[in-house]
Amino acid sequence: MNFLDFCNQCFFEVSKYDNDLAFNSHNQLPLDYIDTNYYQKKDIPGLSNFEGNCYLNSVLQCFYYCNDLTNYFLENEYDIRKKNGKLSNAYLDLILKLNKKRDNINAKKFLKVLQEVSFNFFKKGGNDPKAALFYLLDILHNELKDENLFYNEEDICCEGIDQEKVFQKCKNNEQNNKSIISELFSFCLITKNECIKCENTHYSCEYKNNMLIELNMFRTDKEYVNINELIQIYFQDVTQNFICCFNKTNFKQVFKANFSKKIISLPKYLIIILNRDIIKFNVLNENIIDISEFCVNEKNAKFKFIGASLTNDFGNKKGTHAIARCITQEGSYIFNDFYTIKSEGDIEGFNSYILFYQKL
Hints:
By secondary structure, this protein is an alpha+beta fold. It has helices at residues 3-10, 54-64, 67-75, 77-83, 86-100, 108-117, 129-144, 163-175, 180-185, 227-235, and strands at residues 159-160, 187-194, 201-208, 211-213, 224-226, 238-243, 254-265, 269-274, 282-284, 288-290, 302-311, 322-328, 331-336, 339-342, 351-359.
């Protein structure tokens, strides 16, 4: 029986427990179907499901195995408490629990705090791994950023015809708005357009904490594709509307122009997000990816796979379930909420949705 069969079975299981912190979810993997030889809950802690929060569990498990972030929280507990950020304190508490490797660990308190600090969480797809990831990165960044730095949000436009000046302004803005989140996950993306009106090359620059790959134009008959094929799509030239600020005779005139983009600075952890609604095939997670050809100056842009949030789709919203696959010190593990299974192979019935890579 594959994982798809496991989770289909779960929807018809009646809870045998009253403890809403652990076992009352409709989409947990039944313990009866797990080979106990691979059941390592005491050594590799999972997160109990409640109220169908598998989408959040899958993201939190991936974050936990971003070792630099976890170590930062463990080594700077006093400073984090001192900042008094609600979500960062809740995340710290969760990490401390996971480190103790006890049974029945859950993210109930964390989810409650997340709902408090992000008013629109459920209104804008809160039950989705991508939405949980966006709020998690944004709120942790704002709570943990250096308060002594001066950052003017009105002065964030980084555009011009001098690439170095554009990049330097973008870099200065980022330095004045930095946190452990931006230090680990942000990369600088520069976009170039050669204007056919003024014949200048225009540059725009921004820091991003994820690589969101739009797959609207991607078509294939293959059942499996690799992540390198999808990265090619992210960096391919596109045609879009453009307003040239240097064309004085036709100021504010909109016309079609070709844009290309490159990476100027790399993150320690690269997060790649795929569009789950469009993907109708399985994505192979390469152990090593190389994006050097898409960088301006970086000669060594190799990253190793460390984790993924994966989802399935049974044809309706109620049937969607999210799990995680992470590389730990003990090996490769599948995290189906509370249950953890050691597995090196692909997971049938699930597609990669959010991928985590660490720079080599």
